[in-house]
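Design job #97: recover the sequence.
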């Protein structure tokens, strides 16, 4: 009895392992990269342009179906390819009364990305607080890291001891502004690869948003007027010399806002249909337009606004999602379930079971029939004595069939 139990334990372990390995092997062989078209808005023709590479050949076209050479295509997007246009001597002198030059384009351009993985990733509880008005050109990584629990504490990263002098003055600054400990959320841009530092936006227990940074070694703390009923889910801070906005704010209802330098007032971006859990969002600023792009595995939406964030045009591209491919339907019939270990929308290691529904009965019946035939004709087994093998196959299909056929019962009898 113990020997049989040991065999079945190994069979079940092999079944689980195969449910991870076989689907991955299948898609390594049969997967086909699904690269959607890139979408841009041309300030020259005032319409959308598209580009896509298929089998090594790149195609360029507009919404009307007109095709372009690469040079003609790039000439229609001077804010994207200004270096090439300048080299060719065709960079416009002005566009819509905006004087065009390489320096003017660079000074009036900005890019921010929010990936779906940001919402499903481990949060680091220790943060560096940079000196925002250093006497030196480049930002320097501080020796201390801070956390905010029942109070704000600075820890020396080398000795793991608290730095009471910093902790006390910053704790007093937060308390004086009415901060209610502990912090619910801390958002910043903890890198020295930026022109300057704007510190952190911190949400307290009462959902008030505070702006916290270090200025000449002293705390700068402002309790902003950002509404407490927004149900903020995520804030991305990206310092930029334009100093129009600190970053982007995402709510639980997938609304997207800019946090402006104008007394922290919010500007809502037109992003209807955006889903933070499954979509990546790109926000572009150029001298004339603001562009919001968000996409998942079957569609991409591009919204273009003027500098006052009034919508000018919208385009959505659709394509067949992977779940609708013929290869996906074959996989669903072949594999009763799949164990998901990784997902592009999260940094966590997963162990999620995904069942493939009634179509999986096809694969189960084939696997069960093949197992019965092989056991009776090749292995000459008594199926009544090993009925549990058939139950495993009936529940797991091809995974269980391979496991019970490879791990035969005879050595365990």
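Job complete. Output follows.
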């Amino acid at each position: 009895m113990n020997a049989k139990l040991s065999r079945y334990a190994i069979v079940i372990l092999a079944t689980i392992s195969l449910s991870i390995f076989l689907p991955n092997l299948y898609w390594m062989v049969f997967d086909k990269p699904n690269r959607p078209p890139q979408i841009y808005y041309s300030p020259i023709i005032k319409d959308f342009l598209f580009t896509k590479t298929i089998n090594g050949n790149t195609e360029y076209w507009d919404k009307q179906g007109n095709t372009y050479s690469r040079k003609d295509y790039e000439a229609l997007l001077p804010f994207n390819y200004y270096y090439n246009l300048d080299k060719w001597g065709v960079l416009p002198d002005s566009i819509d009364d905006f004087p065009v030059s390489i320096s003017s384009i660079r000074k009036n351009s900005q890019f921010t990305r929010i990936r779906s993985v940001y919402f499903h990733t481990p949060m680091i509880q220790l943060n560096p607080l940079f000196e925002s008005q250093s006497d030196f050109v480049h930002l320097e990584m501080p020796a201390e890291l801070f956390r905010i629990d029942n109070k704000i504490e600075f820890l020396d990263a080398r000795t793991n001891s608290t730095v009471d002098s910093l902790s006390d003055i910053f704790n007093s600054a937060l308390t004086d502004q009415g901060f209610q400990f502990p912090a619910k959320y801390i958002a910043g841009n903890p890198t020295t690869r930026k022109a300057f530092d704007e510190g952190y936006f911190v949400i307290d227990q009462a959902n008030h948003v505070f702006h916290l940074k270090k200025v000449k070694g002293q705390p700068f703390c402002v309790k902003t007027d950002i509404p407490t009923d927004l149900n903020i889910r995520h804030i991305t801070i990206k310092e930029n010399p334009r100093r129009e906005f600190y970053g982007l704010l995402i709510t639980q209802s997938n609304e997207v806002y800019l946090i402006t330098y104008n007394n922290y007032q919010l500007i809502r971006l037109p992003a209807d249909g955006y889903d933070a859990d499954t979509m990546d969002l790109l926000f572009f600023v150029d001298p004339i337009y603001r562009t919001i792009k968000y996409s998942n595995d079957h569609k991409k939406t591009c919204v273009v606004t003027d500098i006052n964030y009034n919508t000018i045009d919208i385009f959505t591209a659709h394509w067949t999602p992977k779940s609708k491919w013929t290869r996906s339907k074959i996989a669903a019939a072949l594999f009763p379930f799949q164990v998901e270990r990784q997902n592009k929308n999260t940094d966590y290691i997963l162990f999620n079971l995904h069942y493939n529904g009634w179509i999986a009965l096809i694969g189960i019946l084939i696997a069960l029939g093949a197992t019965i035939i092989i056991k009776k004709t090749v292995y000459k087994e008594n199926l009544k004595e090993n009925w549990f093998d058939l139950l495993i196959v009936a529940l797991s299909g091809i995974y269980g069939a391979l496991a019970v056929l490879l791990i035969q019962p005879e050595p365990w009898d």
